[in-house]
Write a structure and sequence with these properties.
The complex is a heterodimer of chains A (310) and B (249). Chain A has 310 residues and is α/β, with parallel strands linked by helices. Chain A has 8 helices and 16 strands. The chains are: A alpha/beta (310), B alpha/beta (249). The structure holds flavin-adenine dinucleotide.
Chain lengths: 310, 249
């Protein structure tokens, strides 16, 4: 048995979710290889080789692989697949984009977004926005799996000494080309791996009011998130969205401010260790999952919270 | 150009889903069903394209039991021109769905397939990508903006770091995200009109696709419930609890 993990990266840095995926791979068993498909991504390959438990890093480098375009990356993985019992990727937007394309090319049914490895063929995954957990098993010769990063500890980023080898370089399928990105930049920790997350909802009323949450975040070393309603209203960019169809987070502390607690939002944060809700409506469903609920006007409570932290 | 929109019938997103007592799945009997919300967005986008002169026919297709015809009628009432119903059991896997859709694409020859990025029942997020792979077409996934010019489309994708713009060649499969548009409601006259629109039924056998499941569901369980904690009186009690009791700050 051996497992190939598709690295998520931006050619400069290995995305943290890759480390959680390596842990899932180690629970499956067998040799773990990491594929770095990219363009001049030597730093990523070095970082991948240092990850504890990884035996080999395969580097496919080509201009056509520089932006994770599924039409170019998928055939490359298809070609390499026969040597592996499992192909894993983090359930990030990159993994979700590429892996089903690989699965169809290999005529394999993918298992999406697993939260537990039961055995090498059997996995648990949430369905219905996390309102149910399904245990599914497969006897496909190659198992294709995407991994929910919050459900697995991160493998140690150092201590490993994997060999680095070149893989087939791949080529441009000529179907899609990268135009540009509009990426949010922030000094704060990344949302899905931050130890503390403070999120705002429709109750924030305006994007500029998120400054209140940012001040708290900076004192706590937290990331800032949001509900879909807050993103739809244009208060904050799409990458802030926590929920069934946004990002899944499971920090030590999640603070929901002006968020009602719809099931689609809970799907993205209910595995947090401690949940705090600040809402002026004492009937809001968010209080049913909150460890500590404060019924208050957020415009008074949040500045006071920030002051108390000093 | 023709636009094909696959639509799925799922439990309505407002319904609190219950797991069956025998852990074989979730309770579907007497539960309100509706079109997958992402698929409504896909239908809306196809209709907008037609209304702006970019498409001349919108065809909706649904795979599942006979009740899926209601979902197709909803799509027709929104404004789609024609429906195709592929009769199958309701728990058909994304790979098989993609294979069936490929056969429909071969027959219908659309220039674009708009499909929801995920279904809110199985939350798989696979079908569009798989269909694109089987057809050898370009894919634009998690799309919140699209502009078409000639045989190219520029799509804006919602990715973990923000937004990404891609140029994709057509024909293509585009999987749509929440912020692409706000779907319209079907008006009463349009609901009446939809009853007369053509709806063809095809069987899985006619399409010659093996849809036998690849995965076995061993059990479906409720996740561990989170119990409500306490209400604190004010901010200082909150900070005190977080510092001294939960020890998270
Ligand atoms: C297919 C689909 C997918 C979805 N995916 C997601 C998802 O991924 N993530 C997500 O979040 N949602 C998602 N949703 C939307 C979800 O159903 C809810 O509509 C959304 O989460 C509501 O956001 P909210 O809580 O910010 O807004 P609301 O429900 O409007 O709640 C606002 C809250 O703010 C409180 N409030 C207002 N003013 C104040 C004040 N001054 N002080 C204190 N409290 C105040 C109110 O009491 C209220 O509880 C999805 C929906 C669908 C159909």
């Amino acid at each position: 048995m051996s497992v190939l993990v598709l690295a998520d990266h931006d050619n400069g840095q290995l995305a943290g979710a890759t480390l959680n995926t390596v842990t899932a791979a180690s629970q499956i068993g067998g040799d773990i290889h990491i594929l770095v498909a990219g363009d001049s991504s030597g730093d990523v390959a070095n970082a991948a080789a240092a990850v504890a438990g990884v035996a080999k890093v395969l580097v496919a480098s080509d201009e056509s692989l520089g932006h994770g375009i599924a039409e170019n990356v998928a055939p490359l993985i298809q070609e390499m697949a026969s040597g592996y019992s499992h192909l894993l990727a983090p359930a990030t937007t990159t993994g979700k984009n590429i892996m089903p394309r690989v699965a169809a090319l290999l005529d394999v049914m993918q298992i999406s977004d697993i939260v537990q490895v039961v055995d090498a063929n059997t996995f648990q995954r949430p369905i219905y926005a996390g309102n149910a957990l399904a245990t599914v098993t497969t006897d496909e010769a190659i198992k294709i799996v995407t991994v929910r990063s919050t459900a697995f500890e991160a493998a140690a980023a150092d201590g490993g000494s994997a060999s680095i080898e070149d893989a087939t370089a791949g080529s441009d399928a000529g179907l899609s080309s990268y135009v540009k990105s509009e990426l949010s930049s922030s000094e704060r920790p990344e949302l899905t791996s931050a130890p503390i997350v403070i999120s705002g909802g429709r109750g924030m009323q305006d994007g500029s009011n998120f400054a209140m949450l940012e001040k708290v975040a900076d004192k706590l070393g937290a990331a800032v998130g949001a509900s879909r309603a807050a993103v739809d209203a244009g208060f904050v960019p799409n990458d802030y969205q926590v929920g069934q169809t946004g990002k899944v987070v499971a920090p030590d502390l999640y603070v929901a401010v002006g968020i009602s607690g719809a099931i689609q939002h809970l799907a993205g944060m209910k595995d947090s260790k401690v949940i705090v809700a600040i809402n002026k409506d004492d009937e809001a469903p968010i209080f049913q999952v909150a460890d500590f609920g404060l019924v208050a006007d957020l415009f008074e409570a949040v500045p006071e919270f920030e002051k108390e932290l000093s | 150009m023709k636009v094909l929109v696959p639509i799925k019938r799922v439990i309505d997103y407002n319904v609190k889903v219950r797991v069956k007592a025998d852990n074989s799945g979730v309770e579907l009997a007497n539960v309100k069903m509706a079109m997958n919300p992402f698929d409504e967005i896909a239908v809306e986008q196809a209709l907008r394209l037609k209304e702006s002169g970019g498409a001349d026919e919108v065809v909706v297709v649904s795979i599942g039991p006979s009740q899926n015809q209601e979902t197709i009628r909803t799509g027709l009432a929104m404004g789609a021109d024609r429906g195709i119903h592929i009769e199958a059991s309701h728990d058909i896997e994304p790979l098989a769905v993609a294979k069936l859709l490929k056969e429909v694409v071969t027959r219908e020859n659309p220039g674009l397939v708009f499909v929801g990025k995920q279904a809110i029942d199985d939350d798989c997020n696979q079908t569009g990508q798989m269909l694109a792979a089987l057809l050898g077409w370009a894919q634009g996934t998690f799309v919140s903006g699209i502009e078409i010019s000639g045989d190219k489309a520029t799509v804006i994708r919602e990715v973990d770091g923000g937004l990404e713009h891609l140029a994709i060649s057509m024909p293509a499969v585009v999987t749509v995200d929440l912020r692409l548009n706000e779907p319209r409601y079907a008006s009463l006259p349009n609901i009446m009109k939809a009853k007369k629109k053509p709806l063809d039924s095809i069987s899985v056998e006619e399409l010659g696709v093996d849809v036998s499941p690849r995965l076995t569901v061993i059990k479906v369980e409720e996740p561990e419930a989170r119990s409500a904690g306490i209400k604190v009186a004010d901010v200082s009690e909150l900070v005190n609890k977080l510092k001294n009791e939960a020890k998270v700050i």
